[in-house]
Write a structure and sequence with these properties.
mainly beta, nine-stranded antiparallel β-sheet, about 280 residues, about 5% helix, 2 helices, single chain
Length: about 280
């Protein structure tokens, strides 16, 4: 059994609480289909999460269709498992021919894994779950690990989401990612959005950082599970970043899963961030 600090506990009104010794807070505040909020870094009391939280399931698409506002507005249920993980379930409906599950599991005092699973009832063409994270206003430094910086560097590295690059930046995985991002889904209501296409991501890795303290939140996914990493420019009011999961066809009766990880570190070096990311991509915990 996992140590108690790496387990969720039942909270009030359908929520789940955590206190890992490094982070404390709530998942599914008031039982809503949202992510981790509040999240407090206990060493100095810094608040990390904003909006509807870290690792919340937002827009859901197939080719030519958006499923309402997004999963964080759909009714869902949640179960606390004996290992301390929490599994969220959105059942299929006549308007949503798929079941969606999300399992949150602490893997270290500063790191949580999220497995997002879809079971299709009919064919889902270019299915996408847009995984969102929102931060407190201090986290204005937003970066994505890209194949190159279009302004000055031909080498892979972090590209800072500066306003000169655009308001909303999309870093695709490959040509397939470019195609899916641009297939018209982002023109659908509600709240259509235009993305500035950036270089491909070199690693499925993004960070948000508080420049004054150095406190950094790192988000990553498996390469094959994610076809795009997204962020507005750093100071834009949403203070967010996003990962587009799946992006491929899922046949009726089939199941697909995507694994993501979020890590919080105090002022990490680039080498530390890359080491953590490579360990995750290689399957280490």
């Amino acid at each position: 059994m996992k140590p108690s600090n790496l387990q969720f506990a039942r909270g009030e009104a359908g929520s789940f609480t955590f206190d890992t010794g490094v982070l404390n807070g709530v998942l599914r505040q008031e039982g809503r289909s949202i992510g981790l909020i509040p999240v407090t870094y206990t060493a100095d009391g810094s608040e990390i999460a904003g909006g509807e939280g870290l690792f919340n399931h937002y827009r859901v698409f197939i080719y030519g269709k958006r499923y309402g506002y997004g999963a964080r507005r759909w009714p869902s249920t949640a179960e606390l498992h004996t290992d301390g993980s929490v599994e969220v379930l959105w059942t299929a409906t006549p308007d949503r021919p798929f079941e969606l599950r999300a399992t949150y599991r602490w893997v270290a005092p500063n790191a949580i894994d999220l497995v997002t699973t879809v079971r299709a009832e009919t064919k889902l063409e270019a299915f996408e779950v847009f995984l969102a994270s929102y931060y407190r206003p201090a986290f204005t430094d937003s970066r994505v690990w890209a194949s190159h910086d279009p302004r000055w560097s031909p080498k892979a590295g972090f590209v800072s989401a500066d306003r000169e690059l655009g308001e909303w930046l999309a870093f695709p995985r490959d040509e397939r990612g470019v195609h899916v991002i641009g297939d018209g889904r982002w023109e659908l209501e509600p709240h259509p959005l235009g993305w500035t296409m950036m270089p491909n991501f070199a690693l499925p890795l993004a960070i948000r950082r508080d420049p004054s303290s150095g406190l950094t939140v790192i988000v990553m996914t498996r390469r094959d599970d994610c076809f795009g990493i997204f962020t507005p420019y750093g100071e834009e009011k949403h203070i967010s970043n996003y990962m587009s999961l799946f992006g491929h066809d899922i046949e009726g009766g089939e199941t697909a899963s995507a694994r993501s990880r979020l890590v919080v570190l105090p002022d990490p070096s680039e080498e530390e961030i890359l080491g953590i990311t490579e360990a995750f991509l290689e399957g280490s915990t």
